């Protein structure tokens, strides 16, 4: 695959396209029988907020948006309370709201995304990446394991308990 893959900040004029990708992901979670993202979150307002705060990122394949993700530096209040223990107390990147365009599904895009997030984290001199997912999001649990993330415990987020993971980058 000689495609050019890039991770860059999302632009406000891309919010409808991103929301469309998120809606596909919400539906995929529902069809998988997951409770994650089934209560009206995330929504278009979430996307607008992410982009305006500089958290919204897209991974493009030949300039076409394939994946949306929110990358937040050092700020996830829910992570200050964990049933368990984080690996580190240093600076971290929080990964939220990963959504992949149906057209790019099943092509290993999320694994590539995590490689890009690790590069992003390293280039900013940040110690680790923290991420949480629903206990029934099997696809994400498999990817986190494959990418070497350590299970740290559970956090309470968006109305439910989530499995929390961390990977030390530097």
Automatic annotation (TrEMBL):
The keyword Transferase applies. InterPro entries: Acyl_CoA_acyltransferase, GNAT_dom. Gene3D superfamilies: 3.40.630.30. The keyword Transferase applies. Keywords: Transferase. It comes from the Bacteria. Residues 5-166 form the N-acetyltransferase domain. PROSITE patterns: GNAT (PS51186). GO terms for molecular function: acyltransferase activity, transferring groups other than amino-acyl groups. This is N-acetyltransferase. It comes from Chryseobacterium hagamense.
